[in-house]
């Protein structure tokens, strides 16, 4: 069915305009208009009338007093509406008119709401039922869309007899419809509360602060009113039914709309989820790429590691084979050295055999005449006498430009000339850096010519303690020198026993190198006294017997252990500087009390206590009465003394004392006792003057000049470091 719309000033209407639906009944319409004017503060109102042209109860033709319609039609409706406005509306309030021609009032109202975006509508509640929902259903989808766009919501106030019956929200897509329905049926406080939420700006002042209780009152008021007027009540119920019906018809549309909204939301969520999934896929792909890279890298590293392992194994094998090769080369080198040494020896032997005179093999041993001896000693001037012992006087002398010490043997030990010379030859072959060198002899005067040592004997140094006491380093160095000489003697073939070891027989050279003197003298002298030729002791009961092995008094014979005993006593004297009496006892006592300091001679300086204690125990063992309990010279005594070599031989502080030592001892060749010009290291580890050690080796020796032990080889290595040190020292 078509419709005609007349609007006067409607184009000026806005969202705040309050529409009042006026009908055929002038009284009710006036009540509506009154109520709207009283309850809305809006400045614009619009009278909405649905004209039913084909109805016999048409509004047209009636006047305010309900007169019959005339033929002027629409013009009359406007007049009537104008009359409403003139009589009811106060000044300052604008009122428009909206006239819609349609046979169905509900459709007309719905159309007006949709077309004019009515937000606020006041209409009668006791009139004919307006089925707004039906209208909505009949509208086309396009119309629905238009209405949804234009009509967000429309508040409808239902007025009956000048009072508000209920309010309703006409909407297609909000839950406010629910609220509207709740208000319409007026059956709960909760619903009334919800109604409060839907108040628009156009809500009448009277309703603005309505709560559930207010709504209850409205309900009760309405109910009371309905009780008073059955017609009104029934009419309201009809309206309620109508509204419910309208609502249910709207419900399917609402649900579709809700579903559409939901669908859109779901689609949006789905799109978001898809984006997320895509993003995660991308991330996963990136991570997979990275993982692949890492795996590749890992594989490459593993390959490298395995290659490294292979290389390592190969290198290890190479090292092992190189070591094997080195060992075999060394063995070969050693074999060659031995062969070389043998070859050299054989060459020397052949050379010697080739010489007509076998005596040339003998060490050249000067024989001095009595005249020379006499001259050297200035006619045995007592002022040139340096000492006198049991076996004769000792003179200092200058013989063939050499400073010598000449020992005059007693005449009672007279031997034949040949015997004396033979004995001299034997003694002259016994050479060691720590043995007083026998330079020559004078058979005529039965004198022996020795190198002269200008630092006197150990006895004299121990006796004058107050004047320049020997430092502990020199004392230990002396013990080392003595031990070295004894090892040499005892290891000689045949074994040579000193047999008269005591401090007076330990002479010190300019460098405080100790040299044992008087080797073989007792036997030389005793041979003439004792027919059996063995070494026996003189039974003089004096102090010198303190150095004699107690077992010799029982057996009457000297043994290598006898020298060890004497060495022990001298070592105790070196440590303590004490007289012989009670020396062993005091040392034992001190060690038992762990108070070595009590007996040590601290004029020698600060002894290294731990090592010194070792020496003290060693000395006591040497002094054991039973020779079996005494320590072995090489394996025990030397092993204790040797570590001191680095500290005590050729090192400060005593070397720095020019008063004591002018030349560092390690600059001096142990064989020739002169500062070395061309130092060479032999197989024994000692350094010698090249010419001296070569002479030693060439004369058939294969033993160390220092230890008399067999040399591993006869190779000599130049000692450049020592050579430089000597040169540097000589320059200063
Ligand atoms: N080569 C020498 N250089 C310097 N002084 C020496 C030399 N030989 C001996 N003397 C000195 O002569 C002193 C006498 O020594 P000698 O060996 O004759 O007798 P002794 O050892 O004192 O006693 P005895 O021989 O009766 O046991 C020594 O104490 C020493 O001072």
Automatic annotation (TrEMBL):
<feature type="domain" description="Protein kinase">
    <location>
        <begin position="380"/>
        <end position="645"/>
    </location>
</feature>
<dbReference type="Pfam" id="PF07714">
    <property type="entry name" value="PK_Tyr_Ser-Thr"/>
</dbReference>
<dbReference type="InterPro" id="IPR011009">
    <property type="entry name" value="Kinase-like_dom_sf"/>
</dbReference>
<dbReference type="InterPro" id="IPR003613">
    <property type="entry name" value="Ubox_domain"/>
</dbReference>
<dbReference type="InterPro" id="IPR051348">
    <property type="entry name" value="U-box_ubiquitin_ligases"/>
</dbReference>
<keyword id="KW-0833">Ubl conjugation pathway</keyword>
<feature type="domain" description="U-box">
    <location>
        <begin position="662"/>
        <end position="732"/>
    </location>
</feature>
<dbReference type="GO" id="GO:0005524">
    <property type="term" value="F:ATP binding"/>
</dbReference>
<dbReference type="Pfam" id="PF04564">
    <property type="entry name" value="U-box"/>
</dbReference>
<dbReference type="InterPro" id="IPR013083">
    <property type="entry name" value="Znf_RING/FYVE/PHD"/>
</dbReference>
<dbReference type="InterPro" id="IPR000719">
    <property type="entry name" value="Prot_kinase_dom"/>
</dbReference>
<dbReference type="InterPro" id="IPR017441">
    <property type="entry name" value="Protein_kinase_ATP_BS"/>
</dbReference>
<keyword id="KW-0067">ATP-binding</keyword>
<keyword id="KW-0547">Nucleotide-binding</keyword>
<dbReference type="InterPro" id="IPR001245">
    <property type="entry name" value="Ser-Thr/Tyr_kinase_cat_dom"/>
</dbReference>
<keyword id="KW-0808">Transferase</keyword>
<keyword id="KW-0175">Coiled coil</keyword>
<comment type="pathway">
    <text>Protein modification; protein ubiquitination.</text>
</comment>
<feature type="binding site">
    <location>
        <position position="407"/>
    </location>
    <ligand>
        <name>ATP</name>
    </ligand>
</feature>
<dbReference type="InterPro" id="IPR014729">
    <property type="entry name" value="Rossmann-like_a/b/a_fold"/>
</dbReference>
<feature type="coiled-coil region">
    <location>
        <begin position="256"/>
        <end position="297"/>
    </location>
</feature>
<comment type="function">
    <text>Functions as an E3 ubiquitin ligase.</text>
</comment>
<dbReference type="GO" id="GO:0061630">
    <property type="term" value="F:ubiquitin protein ligase activity"/>
</dbReference>
<protein>
    <recommendedName>
        <fullName>RING-type E3 ubiquitin transferase</fullName>
        <ecNumber>2.3.2.27</ecNumber>
    </recommendedName>
</protein>
């Amino acid at each position: 069915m078509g419709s005609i719309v007349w609007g006067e000033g409607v184009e000026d209407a806005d969202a705040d305009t309050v529409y009042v639906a006026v009908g055929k009944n002038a009284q009710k319409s006036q009540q509506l208009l009154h109520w709207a004017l009283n309850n809305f503060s809006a400045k614009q109102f619009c009278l909405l009338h649905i004209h039913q042209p084909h109805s016999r109860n048409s509004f047209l033709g009636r006047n305010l007093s309900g007169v019959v319609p005339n033929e002027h039609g629409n013009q009359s409706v406007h007049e009537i509406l104008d009359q409403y406005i003139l009589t009811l509306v106060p000044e300052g309030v604008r009122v428009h008119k909206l006239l819609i021609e349609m046979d169905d009032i509900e459709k007309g109202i719905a159309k007006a709401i949709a077309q004019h975006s009515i937000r606020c509508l006041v209409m009668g509640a006791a009139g004919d039922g307006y089925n707004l929902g039906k209208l909505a259903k009949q509208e086309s989808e396009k119309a629905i869309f238009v209405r949804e766009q234009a009509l967000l919501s429309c508040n409808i106030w239902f007025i009956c007899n000048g009072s508000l019956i209920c309010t309703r929200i006409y909407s297609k897509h909000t839950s406010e419809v629910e609220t509207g329905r709740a208000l319409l049926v007026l059956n709960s406080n909760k619903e009334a509360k919800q109604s409060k939420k839907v108040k628009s700006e156009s809500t009448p002042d009277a309703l603005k602060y309505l709560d559930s209780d207010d709504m209850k009152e409205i309900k009760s008021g309405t109910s009371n009113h309905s009780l008073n007027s059955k017609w009104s009540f029934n009419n309201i119920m009809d309206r309620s039914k109508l509204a419910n019906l309208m609502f249910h018809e709207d419900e399917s549309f609402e649900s579709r709309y809700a579903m559409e909204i939901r669908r859109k939301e779901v689609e949006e969520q789905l799109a978001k989820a898809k984006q997320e999934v895509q993003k995660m896929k991308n991330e996963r792909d990136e991570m997979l790429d990275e993982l692949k890279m890492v795996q590749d890298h890992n594989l490459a590293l593993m390959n490298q590691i395995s290659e490294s392992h292979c290389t390592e194994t190969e290198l290890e094998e190479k090292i092992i084979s190189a070591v094997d090769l080195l060992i075999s080369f060394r063995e070969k080198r050693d074999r060659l050295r031995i062969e070389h040494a043998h070859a050299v020896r054989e060459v020397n032997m052949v050379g010697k055999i080739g010489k007509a005179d076998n005596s040339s093999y003998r060490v050249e041993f000067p024989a001095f005449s009595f005249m020379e001896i006499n001259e050297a000693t200035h006619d045995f001037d007592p002022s040139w006498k340096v000492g006198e012992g049991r076996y004769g006087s000792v003179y200092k002398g200058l013989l063939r430009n050499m400073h010598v010490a000449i020992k005059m043997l007693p005449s009672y030990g007279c031997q034949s000339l040949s015997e004396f010379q033979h004995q001299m030859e034997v003694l002259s072959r016994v050479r060691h850096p720590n043995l007083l060198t026998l330079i020559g002899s004078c058979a005529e005067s039965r004198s022996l010519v020795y190198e002269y040592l200008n630092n006197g004997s150990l006895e004299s140094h121990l006796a004058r303690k107050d004047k320049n006491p020997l430092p502990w380093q020199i004392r230990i160095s002396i013990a080392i020198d003595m031990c070295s000489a004894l090892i040499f003697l005892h290891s000689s073939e045949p074994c040579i026993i000193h047999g008269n070891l005591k401090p007076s027989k330990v002479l010190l050279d300019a460098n405080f190198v100790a040299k044992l003197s008087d080797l073989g003298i007792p036997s030389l002298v005793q041979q003439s006294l004792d027919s059996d030729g063995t070494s026996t002791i003189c039974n003089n009961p004096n102090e010198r017997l303190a150095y004699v092995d107690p077992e010799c008094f029982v057996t009457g014979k000297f043994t290598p252990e006898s020298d060890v005993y004497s060495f022990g006593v001298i070592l105790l004297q070196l440590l303590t500087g004490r007289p012989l009496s009670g020396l062993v006892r005091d040392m034992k006592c001190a060690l038992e009390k762990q108070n070595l300091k009590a007996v040590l001679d601290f004029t020698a300086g600060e002894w290294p206590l731990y090592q010194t204690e070792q020496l003290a125990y060693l000395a006591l063992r040497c002094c054991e009465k039973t020779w079996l309990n005494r320590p072995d010279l090489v394996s025990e005594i030397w092993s204790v003394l040797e570590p001191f070599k680095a500290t005590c031989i050729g090192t400060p502080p005593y070397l720095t004392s020019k008063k004591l030592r002018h030349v560092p001892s390690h600059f001096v060749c142990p064989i020739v006792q002169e500062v070395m010009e061309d130092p060479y290291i032999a197989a024994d580890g000692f350094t010698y003057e090249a010419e001296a050690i070569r002479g030693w080796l060439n004369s058939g020796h294969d033993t160390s000049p220092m230890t008399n032990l067999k040399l591993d080889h006869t190779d000599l290595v130049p000692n450049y470091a020592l050579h430089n040190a000597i040169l540097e020292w000589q320059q200063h």
